[in-house]
Each structure stands twice: as C-alpha cells, then as structure tokens.
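TL;DR need structure tokens for one chain.
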Amino acid sequence: MGTSSSKNLDSSSHGSGEEKDDHGGGQLYVSLKMENYKLKGDLVPHVYGSVPLVGSWDTSKALPMERESTSMWELSFVVPPDHETLDFKFLLKPKYNNVPCIEEEGPNRQFMGGKLQGVARLAIFKFSTEEVLEYQVFIKANRVSPFDLAASWRAYQENLEPSTVRGIPDVSINSLPEGADNGSSTSLDLDLEQYLVPAPATAVVYAANLTETPRSLKRGGVFSNADASTKDTGVSVDRPATIKEMEVVIPDPPKLFNPPGMVESKSVGTFSALQKQDSYRGMYVDRGVGSPRLVKSASAHTLTTGGKPASAAKNSMPAAAGAVAAAAVADQMLGPKEDMHLAIVLVGLPARGKTFTAAKLTRYLRWLGHDTKHFNVGKYRRLKHGTNQSADFFRGDNPEGMEARNEVAALAMDDMTAWMQEGGQVGIFDATNSTSERRNMLIKMAEGKCKIIFLETICNDRIIIERNIRLKIQQSPDYADEPDFEAGYQDFKRRLDNYEKIYVPVNEGSYIKMIDMVSGHGGQIQVNNISGYLPGRIVFFLVNTHLTPRPILLTRHGESRDNVRARIGGDTPLSGNGELYAKKLTTFVEKRLKNERAASIWTSTLQRTILTANQIVGFPKIQWRALDEINAGVCDGMTYEEIKKNMPDEYESRKKDKLRYRYPRGESYLDVIQRLEPVIIELERQRAPVVVVSHQAVLRALYAYFADRPLKEIPHIEMPLHTIIEIQMGVTGVQEKRYKLMD
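>> reply
TL;DR here they are.
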C-alpha cells in the first residue's frame, strides 16, 4: 500500500518555547512525491485540481512534477495554514503535450489543513485492461517562515535540480570545429535586417546641444519657447540671437522654515528629529523607502521637511549605495565645505574631444548617482551673440571678442555655482579656457563655493584632429547656416589658429591632463593635487575611456523554467523556448560578428545565461558574478503574487520605490549599479565588440548608462526576452538598434 504522512502542524515551535496559536508569518510548504521504478515512454507525472494553482481541472494547465531521482517525482507549493480545500488528482502525460493523458483511478484526493484526507492509497493508472502502473504517494507539509521558505526553495534549486553547467571554467573558448570558418557557414541564412524592431530615437545630435540650458539669460518669448521645448524633448536647440536686449538674473535663495525639534547633521546634509544636546549632533542617513525625507536647503542655516518642498531644495547626498554613499559621507564629514561640490573645468584647443569627454563623464557620474550637469560656454555664446561669428571673433588681439567670451563664461560659471548651492553635486564646465587669465577668473569665482579640478585634453594625432574638425563643421550650430562646407572648414581652421597663438597649458591648481588618450592605444594621463573618492573615480574612468567605434550587444538569457512559472531569482535551466532562442542567438552572433575575431561573450555565473551562450563558438566566454541577477534575498524563488500575499509590507515598500527598495537579505537597484561599475569601466575600455548575456535588472542598469536614462527610470525600462539591443559607441555618441529574434 501507498503511504501518506503529514506533520502535526499545531505542535511546531519557533524556538521561543511557547506555542503559537496564530498563523501570522507562517506558511505551509507542501511537498507531493510519487515513486515508481518503471517508466512509461515520455509520460511525466502531473498534478491538476480545483484551484487555478493546479489548472482548475484543465489537463493542459496541470503542473508537471520534477524528477528528484531515478524513481522519485516531486512537486512543491506554498499555501496558507487556513487554505481552502484542494481537490486534486494525478495525471500521466508528456511534459510539453496533452496527448496521451492518463488520469489516476479512484475518487479525487483532498488536501485540507495541511493534511491529506481519507484513506491513503496508491496512484493507479490504467493503460488497458492488462497494463496497470502504480505509484506510491507521499505528502509532507511543514510550517515555515518566509525566510525559511526562501531557503527551502534555494535548496531545492541547488540540490534537487542540480545545475547542468557547473564545472565550466570562468573563462573559456569554444574552438571552431576543424575546417570551419567563423561566419562562413552555409547554415547562417539569418537576414539580420528582418528582425529589426523600432528602438528609442537615437538621432545624431551635436553634443553641446544636450547640455544645460542657460537660465541666467532671458530673451523674451524666443528663449522661453526654446526652454519649453527642451523640457519636452530632452534636447535643447540653439537659435540665433534675434533680440539684442538681455539681462542677468540672480535667483533669490529659497526661504525655508526651521521646524522645531530638528537637529542639523552637517556631515550628511540631512536632519534628525533628535533633541539638541551639548556637543552632540544626531546623524540620520536616508536608507530608502519608508524613511522620512529630511533634506538640506540652499541655505546652510535653514531646513525643510517633506519629499518635494516648494523650494525644490535638494539633498547633497548622491542617490547611491555602497562605496559611493560611504565616500560621500566621509568627504562631507572630513572635507571643507566647498569640497561638497565639484567643478570639472575643461581645458583644451577646439576639436580635441572636450565636449565628447564631458558628455561621457556627465553620463557616468549621473549613473553612479551624483547629481551632475554639463554647462557648455559655447551654447551661452551662441544664445547671447548669435551663431554667425567669424574666426576674427576668437582672435586674442580682439578686445571686444575677448570681453564677450569672458562675459558668457562668467554667466555660465554663475549658473553652475548657483545650481550647486541648491544641491547640485558635480558641474562640468565645458569651454576652451585656454589662458591662465581665464582660469584664474574661474578660480576666484569658485572660492568658498566649489572645488575646481581642471581637465585638459591634448591631442597630437593630426588624423583625429582632422576628423573632429570635419564633424564640427557638419554638426555645430556655428556652421548650420553655411552652405559651403569648404568655406566653413577654412573659417574653423582660422579660428583654431587664433586659439593656438594664445593657448597656455594648465599648470595651476588641481588638474588632470589627458595626452593622446582618445585613440585607446596608449597615451598619458597626468594628475596633480588630486585626492578624494570622487576625483579618484573620475581619473580611473578617464584612463579607460576612448573613442574607438565598436558595438555592444545586450540580451537577456533565453526563457527559463522560472520565467514560465513567473518566479523571481533561482538558477533553473532553459525552457523549450529558451533553448530555441539560444540556437537563434548563436546564428545571429556568428553572422553579426563574423569579421570580429577579437569579440568576446560575457555571461553571469547563473546557468540560464551560460546555457544561452553555450553554443556560440570561436569567441572567448567570460563569466562575471557582477552580471548575476538582482539578489531577491528571502523572496528568491517566489512569485510576486506570493510576495503580495505572504509579505504585504515588503510588496508595498517595493511598489513605492523600486530603485531604492532592498529585498530582505538581498539587493536594491542601487546596489546592482554599484557592483556593475567594474563592468561599465571594462566595457568602456574594450576596443572590440562585446556580447553581454545577462538578466533583466542588470541589463536595465547597463542600458540606462549608455542611453543616459535617469536613475528613477531604471526599474521601469522595458527589457524583453529574446531581443538583442545593439549599442554602437563611437565619436558621434551612442546609437541603438534592436533585433527581436522570437515573439
């Protein structure tokens, strides 16, 4: 006879020595098992029954049991202790088909209160009057906490369904079969263009047009309209000055109130509702959802409460976790007040890649969580003096031109420092700043407001300079009204000659010099008087960045078994659809990169990404733990419906702020961003194509870096399965294509 067993749930203890009458926090972890040493073709035991969990008596929706050993099949699920009665029966049918379908003999089985009702019996399946198959049935139910439940699921994943890819080294190369030529196989009949799908607009835009719109300049209705269009599109458009009269506007500092009982914490820029005591100040660090938002205003002597005060005062702490947050706290505790704000002041001749470098650095710092803005002095000049200035305007012996250019530089610096006083953290000041007089003027303007680091770009490669000049003529608004390319080219060459006559390399203050770094082949970087976490990260980033064009392909793993079950986390192998995608991806990569011998394939350490890339041959494969999916902690292996039902507080906290929400014993999106920084640095350093096979949360964070998407948008970026996002990096910025290989 078959046996049936069930634990006495009322006698379970939680370690306190006292009985628990309520079921709060406890769930029933139910394990159904069937045992038989005889197999019948490809038939697999299934469970179906009266509730949606097991198909609502629809055999096509029955849940397959998983093989635990050669003779044992198992299915686990979770129900509350007071669950409704579950009527169910066992089936034998193919895993991915509904025919044939053999239902067990006898009445429905009933599961109620964690126990199997009625007389224990075998599961008997009749194929004919002569052929009968019998399975022993076992059932076990344990009350577990959500923490134990997650641990049980992980144990199931790791022990009962062992990984099929363990033993593969972290770095490997699948050699091509003897006689095969990478990319020349006749089986590669895939037409890449037919899989193209619409991608977010990435039209080539002059980089300076994407910088901060000057707020200290007002030009009646014309400037107001341009400013409004910037808000809608994210791209500001330079217009020639048609109204001569302009004024400088100095914004009033916000008037904020000082709530009673609040204590200022100067070290982190936030405040705690602690009683003020002698020689003591409370420190409060905002750790995310549910924490009161107490932020520092533009004035050092006023406070404000609430998430979005009318004054729009900002917290000077970065929206970050881990090392970035720790460094920000340390810098504010130990450094002078002006070090809380950092100004990166570009220096260099035209056509040396200053604006491109500034744009990349701005994107990187924003992605890390630092409030960063890019101020381009050329944009100020065009708004105030128009776009039709000839090369003579830039002569060193033209006092009117020098005065006009210094004036717009001062306006841009005023705007940047005013923004910093309101909470901005890093300003990128983009101009030639080619004389000591100009740089000394900026140093004086920044005294007591921000720390200045000069970033000088020097390029001696005439081929790169020539290419940059031609791009400048094609894209710069200065030459938008010049129909003759050659005339524009000669005018810019004269402008460049004027700058070269007065150019003085940086030797004052703190500085970083990039000498012939843009090609990615060697070069030098010199630093002087650089200290602190953020300046150090900036130097490290600049050492690894270059302009070499190359594609980066981002794709999620093929559909996994947990995807089918809508479970998060885990380490399950691919489903049938996932295996099909792995084959299509192999064909795509071999055709797309057939001439790219130096390309590489990056995966996480989880088997669903390794299996997705397993069939790709001829390229190095590197496993990165940093590319693993976001750690769901105790929620690993659960569905969101299960989290909502069993952990409603966690569900609501995540819903309020997905960016900062951290799973219990797991990670937040901000944590993921911090561990992905080495991946970003290496992607910037690579000069050959890279295929990244990873997971939804991780790819959202990586894509946000390249697309310069705000942090708050990262958890909501669409990252569909079975789709390849091709990021093309080069001198004109970042462009994107999308290929959908499967529905």
